[in-house]
Amino acid sequence: MIKTAVIGCGAWGLAIARHLSGVGNDVVVWCHSEEARTELETARKSMRAFPDVELPALIRYTTDMEKAVKGKDLVVFSVASPFTRATAKNFAPFIADGQRIVTVTKGIEEDTLMTQVQILRDELPSARVSALSGPTHAEEVILDMPTLIVSASEDREQAEYVQEAFMGPTFRVYTSPDVLGVELGGSLKNVIALAAGMADGMGYGDNIKAALITRGIHEISGLAVKMGAMPETLNGLSGIGDLIVTCASMHSRNRRAGILIGQGKSMDEAMKEVGQVVEGVYSAKAAMALSLKYETPLPIVSEVNHILFEGKDPREAMMDLMLRDRKMEARLDPEDLPREWK
């Protein structure tokens, strides 16, 4: 039995807590408020996140930071990405040297361009930090629907420890040494999902969604590899897999927000209606900053930024994407071109 603490009692945190308890781990959930703790402790369910799902009686809840993490074998960070740094800073006095931490949050910090693992390592330098990411919706994990995910760490033993903690009959965990690639895939796909949702909101059909997914992974991979990630990672679960599920599912907050924007609502109106943090909005500016820093064009990401922050009409943005200069689909080495193309 692995003693685990889940930091955050939102939908994903509760789904993770229920799963960890179900595969035999000792679980305590840290809640941000007494109101949330009381509801979970007395009703054993979250009326906001999962009103129809009863949580295991073995899960405990606390608002005490020290009590949550003291003596725990594994600490799971599951707070919305805009709050990761502040939360980690508050927990820092209670994290032991060498304590294992895994983040299940996806997102890039706008000001620093850091990933979630980089933020946690910055604030908790003595901890062992890794990432767990892939095509996962809390709404399905909470119901024990089959799910596959990736445990990423440069430290193989850490990656395999997290794999062992989470592995179960409905939750298959792979390992990877490519933390950067796993995190970039999980973060940047949210921006592409906003674009896919906008296309849905404008009624543009399946053809353009397939194109946005395909060209989207092309953009994500180009940037990630330029930053040092492995191309194989972006072709896997945490890359194309996560992109597909986020662009196609109505569980996706980013797709839902995109649909509303495509229907004519502003970014603020869409986020308010979705009612949860829309990670792609926070990652969009960071993605553009990375595009400039690494001199890697991201046409879809660029148009999403124009729509979100400059008020550009989504239909105009789509037309601008369609009318870009003609080019080959793939960047091929001249040596690989047929003789007739040279």
List the helices and strands and how they pair.
Blueprint: E1 3-7, H1 11-22, E2 26-30, H2 34-43, E3 60-62, H3 65-69, E4 74-77, H4 84-91, E5 100-103, H5 116-123, E6 128-133, H6 138-141, E7 147-152, H7 156-166, E8 171-176, H8 179-201, H9 206-227, H10 231-234, H11 237-248, H12 253-262, H13 267-274, H14 279-293, H15 299-310, H16 314-322
Parallel strand pairs: 1-2, 1-4, 2-3, 4-5, 5-6, 7-8
Antiparallel strand pairs: 6-7
Helix pairs in contact: 4-5, 8-9, 8-11, 8-12, 8-14, 9-11, 12-13, 14-15, 15-16
Any descriptors?
eight-stranded mixed sheet; alpha/beta; 342 residues
What does this entry look like structurally?
The protein is of the alpha/beta class and 342 residues long. It is 51% helix and 11% strand. It has 16 helices and 8 strands. It has helices spanning 11-22, 34-43, 65-69, 84-91, 116-123, 138-141, 156-166, 179-201, 206-227, 231-234, 237-248, 253-262, 267-274, 279-293, 299-310, 314-322, and strands spanning 3-7, 26-30, 60-62, 74-77, 100-103, 128-133, 147-152, 171-176. It has an 8-stranded mixed beta sheet, sandwiched between helices. Helix 8 (179-201) runs parallel beside helix 12 (253-262). The longest helix has 23 residues, at 179-201. It is globular. The N and C termini lie far apart (62 Å). The mean pLDDT is 96.
Write a brief structural summary:
51% of the residues lie in helices and 11% in strands.
